[in-house]
Design goal:
Blueprint (H helix, E strand, L loop, with lengths): L8 H7 L4 E5 L2 E8 L11 E9 H13 L5 E8 L2 H12 L3 E8 L5 E8 L5 E6 L20 E5 L17 H11 L3 E4 L6 H8 L8 E5 H8 L4 E2 L2 E2 L1 H14 L4 E6 L2 E6 L4 E5 L14 H15 L3 H15 L12 H11 L6
Parallel strand pairs: 1-4, 1-8, 2-6, 4-5, 8-9, 9-10, 10-13
Antiparallel strand pairs: 2-3, 6-7, 11-12, 13-14, 14-15
Helix pairs in contact: 2-8, 5-6, 6-7, 8-9, 9-10
């Protein structure tokens, strides 16, 4: 494992910028814990039902706030002028997040997802309604007067208009990422669990306009055209190849792939790092919804604070481990030091 700097705080200070814009999907998750995943036309019992904010815009902003990022966090996105939209705004405002760029769209419904977490397997399944997300355009992303350093956005494949070409660009996502780059922001893109061919088609043109990419094993494989999961197990060697391939396809200075047993990181200047995940006791797992966002939050927190690659992967794993103690996406995230202490108490898997 390397110990080179993943970020570097001096460039943030020199640029006069700090903080993160958390953008894109803002929705209400209806988090349900079910006793098992049923066959069609059979019954499963709902053991818990908890509505909570969700989507990478909401999750990243609240995760960073709970981790204790010592910098401003800005919400950016579109919600409906409805009870769910105001619920999201109240929640992030209570966490100290700036909502000046969270747009309320009259006559539209806030996006929602039913996240079913099986208590039998720990796996999750989603039923999603785009609602107002399908109406979003690049014009809804305005960066004036926001002196942030990083821009986190998602989810390609789940925003009908942004997924289509826009004013000569391959998609609205490319237009948004280009605008963020012109505003001086470093950009990270969160991906959705959409079909792999469609994911590659939408995200491929975005890679030239990203500074970071934090994804899972299946996603990095889809983007690289490399099979990274075989018979349900991560092929670590294939993930390394996929990371190297994706770096050649884009402009990222850092690419990270995570999977149940660990995570891998590659930088444009050729540094590699690997870190085993937290050995979470099975009885501690309540739900995995939001674990990927928590992992990405640990990476962005570390980038912002100039941590080493080793530290970034450790905090990312620790954040993800802390998150699975709750059925909600953000309910059990704590301060960074507390997440790391929890991870140490549970222990670490061997590096992949």
């Amino acid at each position: 494992m390397t110990t080179s700097e993943a970020g570097g705080r001096s460039d943030v200070i020199a640029a006069g910028r700090s903080g993160v814009i958390s953008a894109g999907s803002w929705l209400v998750d209806h988090n349900l814990a079910i006793d098992h995943w049923p066959e069609e036309e059979t019954l499963a019992e709902v053991r818990d039902h908890r509505p909570e904010g969700g989507g990478p815009g909401f999750n990243m902003s609240v995760d960073l706030a709970r981790l204790g990022l010592p910098a401003p966090i800005y919400a950016m996105g579109v919600v409906g002028e409805d009870a769910d939209g105001h619920f999201l705004a109240r929640t992030v405002e209570a966490a100290g997040i700036d909502t000046r760029r969270l747009i309320f769209r009259a006559g539209a419904e806030t996006s929602s997802t039913y996240a079913m977490s099986s208590m039998d397997t720990g796996r999750r399944t989603f039923f999603h309604s785009q609602a107002v997300h399908g109406l979003m355009t690049p014009d809804d992303f305005v960066f004036d007067d926001l002196p942030a350093r990083y821009f986190h956005v998602g989810l390609p494949g789940l925003h009908r208009t942004l997924d289509l070409p826009w004013e000569g660009e391959p998609s609205g996502w490319v237009a948004v990422l280009k605008a963020a780059g012109r505003a001086g922001l470093k950009r990270n893109l969160e991906l959705a669990a959409v079909e792999e061919t469609r994911l590659k088609a939408i995200v491929g043109p975005c890679l030239a306009h990203l500074d970071f990419l934090v994804v899972n094993d299946r996603e990095i494989g889809a983007l690289a055209g490399i099979r990274t999961v075989v018979d349900g197990r991560t092929d670590v060697a294939a993930c390394w190849r996929a990371l190297d391939t994706v770096l050649t396809l884009g402009a990222m200075e850092l690419a990270v792939a995570h999977f149940p047993r660990g995570a891998l990181a590659v930088t444009r200047d050729g540094r590699h790092a690997a870190k085993g995940s937290v050995a979470i006791p099975p009885h501690a797992i309540v739900g995995t919804n939001g674990a990927g966002d928590a992992f990405a939050a640990g990476i962005l927190y570390s980038l912002h604070e100039g941590h080493s690659l080793d530290q970034a992967l450790a905090l990312a794993h620790a954040s993800a481990a802390a998150s699975v103690r709750s059925i909600t996406t953000v309910g059990s995230i704590e301060r960074a030091a507390n997440c790391l202490a929890l991870a140490d108490s549970w222990g670490w898997r061997e590096d992949p």
